[in-house]
Amino acid sequence: MIQGPIHPFAYDSFQKQAIEHIERGTSLLVAAPTGSGKTVLADYVIEKSLSQGQRVIYTSPIKALSNQKFRDFSQRYPNAVGILTGDVTIHATAPLVIMTTEIYRNTLLEDPQRLSSYAWVIFDEVHYLDNPERGTVWEEAILFTPAHIRLLCLSATIPNVEEFAQWIRFVHQQPVAVVQETQRPVPLSFTFQCQNVFLDDLQELKRVGYRFSEDARRWRSYSHGRRHALKPNRLDALVHELREQQQLPCIYFTFGRRRAEDLAWEMSSTPLTNPEERAELLRIYDDLCGRFQVRQDRSAAALRPLIERGVGFHHAGMLPTLKEVIERCFTSRLMKMIVTTETFALGINMPARSVVLDTLKKRSGGGFELLKRREFLQMSGRAGRRGMDEAGFVYLRINPQHVSFPEVQNLLNGNPEPVRSRFNTSYATLLNLYREHGKGLLEFFPKTLYAFQTSGDQLRKGLEGMQQKLDLLKALGYLTSEGLTAKGEFASWIYGYELLIAELYSHYNLATLDAISLAALMTAVVYEPRPGTAAGKSHHLTKRLSELCRKPLSRIHQAELRFHIHPKTKTPFFHLSHAVEAWMARCPFEKLTRYCDADEGEIVRYLRMTIQLLRQLSEIPQGDLTLRGNAKKALERINRDVVDAEAQLRLG
Predict the structure, then answer these.
(1) Residue 213: per-residue pLDDT
(2) Residue 439: its pLDDT value, please?
(3) DSSP E strand boundaries for 343-465
(4) Which residues face 361 on adjacent strands?
(5) pLDDT digits (tens, 9 = 90+) for 97-134
(6) How far apart are CA 403 and CA 396, in angstroms?
(7) Are 341 and 315 in contact (CB under 8 A)?
(8) Position 226 pLDDT exceeds 90
(9) Predicted confidence (pLDDT) at residue 652 exceeds the cutoff of 80
(10) CA separation for the pair 528, 340 (Å, rounded)
(11) Long-range Cβ contact pairs of 49-52 (< 8 A, separation 24 or more)
């Protein structure tokens, strides 16, 4: 038992129950509402392990959360914390290492011996296993975790938590305890802004908000022969309500970058700070801009009048350093309102007294769909600060034209969606497994969550999907009955982009590309344009690289069609090529937007992803020395100023 308290407060009953299992060394799955105190259990595992000379890995779904955890734990355990996120490597052999889940999974496949001295792995936000694009990584990470490592899985409330735990027990053949909590220590109170009226009761919402429309899809209705238009919800009325009810600071969630900015400027027409708060907030903002070296940035200067009025915005299109400045201003409690997109709800510790949801539907594919119950709980759960607020206050802005009353009811009272497997293992994962197990790798398929949750034809199709990928890899020369070929060994190091890069390496002189061309090509490989993004003017580099990719990509896609593999290998997009070329020629960052149709934050994100890919190329043992050298040169030329994630972390 740990001597002395880790936290300055009494533990809740579910935390005590979980700690008892941790003390017994039992793997544990904890499902509890956002804001209920799951992180306390991660703290406990870390403290216990480090005090006993054991090592711990902490995984998270997003780099921003990884960075935050690195800072938090580094303050508590100086010189004992490391971080590995692909674009950042600090103290990689520390007793406590923060990793993105992808890096942890890759380590399990490439060099599991590196993990021999670790006692626990913590999976934060483990329900992310349900994510359509990245959920496979979580499933593989749990599946391949060595038997000597205990698991602490922290999840939002999910209805099939026991099924999830049964799968982990089946995989690891060890006990896995389940601790569930359904109540928040800070209860939530819901208010509906509908037809510009504030209502605190669902039945009142139905009677008043929907009185002119039984079907929410109708935007006009009749009563006694008269036509009634629905009243719009006014933003100034909402801000006034929040101020009058003393429910600031507030996180306002919306689902678009431009809308986040527009709303922030609109609500700033009325200052939310008094003169003393204004002066102190500006001092903090200016100091942070200086520390993070964005004082001369145009975006930072443009934001200053907004900050002065106690309002900020936060989205993926902003510079990462500027986002961090905004986050710290908000945690000072002097910024009264932050308008942000939904990723802000994922784990980042930014509690507020109240939360506003701009709408209950978001764009999906070609239309709009209702928020998932789990998404709704994640965002609304940011309301109410433990130890500071007696309740959290959630405001839902409802337009009866767009959302029906039953849909509102379901979001408030329905069950969260169960976690379902998204298993679709990558070519690189299969190559790593084939190296170790040969054809026997198919024997691990019955251990997947996918197999655990399915049966019959669906189960058969899942196994066939793996076999089809192996058949493709054999047909394209990545493996033989004896093992991996040289091309297969090369591809096994590159997750997600392995086929195109390996084909270019093996058949199309990838090693002859200079550093600039290599960087532009790798950026095109990782880049995914947002809907409506302009491709920009074609220039010599774009044309040359696009032509270089045409034949190998066609060969891959034809093979994937032949073997019925979906989704097919991603096509490279060269929208940022001109900007990459300019950046590597030492162009100032603030001028890069001239060369592409992308926000500053988007450019940084993809350049950092490029760095991660170039680092893999520079370290491939089987790689051509010239290629490795050019990849290292390209990495060093890209990784500077605001793009340098490690420098940003060290500034913190």
Answers:
(1) 53
(2) 87
(3) 354-357, 361-364, 367-370, 392-398
(4) 370
(5) 999 999 999 999 988 888 999 999 999 999 999 999 89
(6) 12
(7) yes
(8) no
(9) no
(10) 22
(11) 49/95, 49/96, 49/119, 49/120, 50/77, 50/80, 50/95, 50/96, 51/2
d(CA 585, CA 588): 9
Q: Which structure tokens are listed for 296?
A: 């001369």
**Cα–chain-centroid distance for residue 481?**
38
Per-residue pLDDT tens over the stretch 168-186: 999 999 999 999 998 888 9
Count of CB atoms within 10 A of residue 526's CB? Answer: 20
Every domain range in the chain assigned CATH 1.10.3380.30: 493-651
> Encoding tokens for residue 464?
């066939």
- Which amino acid type is present at position 39? T
Burial status of residue 637 (CB atoms within 10 A of its CB: 0-12, 13-18, 19 or more): middle
Alpha-carbon 580 to chain mean position:
25
Q: Which value, to the nearest 10 degrees, does the dihedral of the CA atoms of residues 76, 77, 78, 83 take?
A: -100
Separation between Cα atoms, residue 93 and residue 630, nearest integer Å:
27
> Could you say which DSSP state residue 456 is in?
H
Rg (Cα) of the chain, in Å, rounded? 26
Bond preceding residue 95 cis, omega within 30 of 0: no
Inter-axis angle of helices 540-562 and 498-507, nearest 10:
110
- Residue 140 CA to residue 482 CA, distance in Å, equals 25
The distance in angstroms from the start CA to the end CA of the chain is 33
Q: Which helix (H) or strand (E) holds 250?
A: strand 250-253
Omega prior to 8 cis, within 30 of 0? no
Q: Is 45's pLDDT higher than 90?
A: yes
Partners of 28 in beta bridges: 152, 177
The residue type at 140: E
- DSSP assignment letter at 440: G
3-state secondary structure of 490: helix
Alpha helices in 6-62 (DSSP H): 13-23, 39-51
Contact 355, 250 (CB under 8 A): yes
CATH number for 188-413: choose from 3.40.50.10490, 3.40.50.300, 3.30.465.10, 3.40.50.2300. Answer: 3.40.50.300
Distance CA 248, CA 251 (A): 9
pLDDT digits (tens, 9 = 90+) for 568-621: 999 999 999 999 999 999 999 999 999 999 999 999 999 999 999 999 999 998
Give the Cα separation of 412 and 415 in Å (integer). 9
Q: Write down the residue that tokens 């392990």 correspond to.
A: 49
DSSP 205: I
- Please state, in angstroms and rounded to a whole number, the distance separating the CA atoms of residues 424 and 235: 44
Contact 16, 177 (CB under 8 A): no
Q: What DSSP state is assigned to residue 301?
A: H
Neighbours of 575 (CB within 10 A): 24
Domain with CATH 3.40.50.300 in the chain: 13-180, 188-413
Strand bridging mode 81-84 / 89-90: antiparallel
Closest CA to 198 of 246, 250, 234, 228: 234
Tally of CB atoms within 10 A around 314: 24
Rounded Cα distance, 153 and 142, in Å? 10
State residue 215's pLDDT score: 45
Provide the CATH number for the domain formed by 13-180 in this structure. 3.40.50.300
Instruction: Return the CATH number of the domain spanning residue range 493-651.
Output: 1.10.3380.30
Question: Quick check: helix, strand or coil at residue 534?
Answer: coil
pLDDT over threshold 80, residue 6 = no
